[in-house]
Amino acid sequence: MKKMMFLFMIMSFSLLVSAQATDFSGKWKLNSAKSKLAAEYSMAPKELVITQSGNDFAVERHASFQDRDFTISDKFTLDGKECINKGWQDSEKKSTVVVSADKKSLKITTTLAMGNNGTMTWTENFKIDGKNLVVEASSTSSFGDRSETMVFDPE
Q: What is the value of pTM for the model shown?
């Protein structure tokens, strides 16, 4: 009986450990040499700061455009519910996050109304590869389709 109880406890613990999602928290610096970025205009931030706790997932993107630095901060939930964050000017970005079945990656799908130019939809797939964070991003809008693979080193 004691052996059965011991085995049950070990199995329960291993199920609990395997059920937890990968924690992407940390400061991540873009490694341009390892990344596959768009030739003309890249969506890649130079740094990501990710905070993950329980159901909460926050991404702070530090980027620059035309010699201007800026930060985009978005907050999401990992339960698949729609999250709304501030977009450009007075617009809203609507996003959902789906955690993979194996809990090793997650996918953020975001839509943004672009006024008379329709809607932009983009997806970001986050995964850890060794010590690096890899974000595969793609977007679709009236301006065309884009995709990039961004590789970030831990800071």
A: 0.85
